[in-house]
Specification:
globular; 8 strands; Rossmann fold; two-stranded antiparallel sheet; 8 helices; alpha/beta
């Protein structure tokens, strides 16, 4: 007897989105089940970021986010930027104390997460002093520290070389139960994800297991026509 499929964590049915009177997404039917690793692909402007926003809005209390821009507070330390991943789960008093004098336990936890993305030495560096690739890894570390089960990432490794990107995505897969990632690297998408969803002009034009997607078609899906 076959076991039932994992429970869905996100269900969108006929979803639509518009900005400034212009329709960005239309007729989106998408179900993401617990444990899936889903890559969203498509050309710039296809609607990937908007779709990620709809997913996050549906289950905000279950999502850890890696935004397209690192969205760091540049004047604060790397420690404090990563610590913000759990800001809403700590008391106001604890957060104020942490701003001035972090507890050893919090420093140790954040340091361990930074080690996973190769940034142990940056713990007390100002976030704004880091390179673009380092800032992106800090954003990933913040999501790992957040620890919620669904990771939503908008081009989370776009500033990294392929080897770094593969290592960082492996850490995200190890740290979160379910992944939904907008990616532009076809090889990484096929290697890491078990399902690929391609958007074109705000609609889903392909939704298939990664192993069944033709690499050439996938590469063409996000190149300019």
């Amino acid at each position: 007897m076959r076991s039932p499929p994992p429970a869905p964590v996100v269900v969108l049915a006929g979803a639509r989105a518009a900005y400034g009177g212009r329709e960005v997404l239309s007729g989106i039917d998408l179900t993401v089940r617990r444990g899936e690793r889903v890559a969203l692909m498509g050309r710039s402007g296809a609607g990937k970021s908007t779709l990620l926003g709809l997913i996050q809005a549906q289950i905000p209390d279950r999502v850890a986010l890696v935004p397209q821009a690192a969205a760091l507070v540049r004047t604060l330390s790397v420690f404090h930027n990563v610590y913000m991943g759990r800001l809403d789960r700590r008391s106001t008093l604890h957060n104020l104390r942490t701003l001035l004098r972090p507890a050893r336990a919090d420093v140790a936890e954040v340091g361990a997460v930074l080690a996973r993305v190769g940034l142990s030495e940056t713990l007390w560096a100002k976030a704004g002093a880091l390179s673009g690739g380092q800032q992106q890894r800090v954003s990933v570390a913040r999501a790992l520290y957040n620890g919620r089960p669904v990771l939503v990432g908008d081009e989370p490794v776009s500033a990294l070389d392929p080897r770094q990107g593969e290592a960082v995505l492996a850490e995200l897969a190890a740290g979160h139960e379910t992944l939904v990632l907008a990616l532009h690297d076809a090889a990484l998408a096929r290697a890491l994800c078990d399902r690929i969803v391609v958007l074109e002009a705000g609609r889903i034009v392909l939704d298939a297991p990664a192993g069944e997607v033709d690499p050439a078609r996938l590469q063409a899906s996000f190149e300019a026509p």
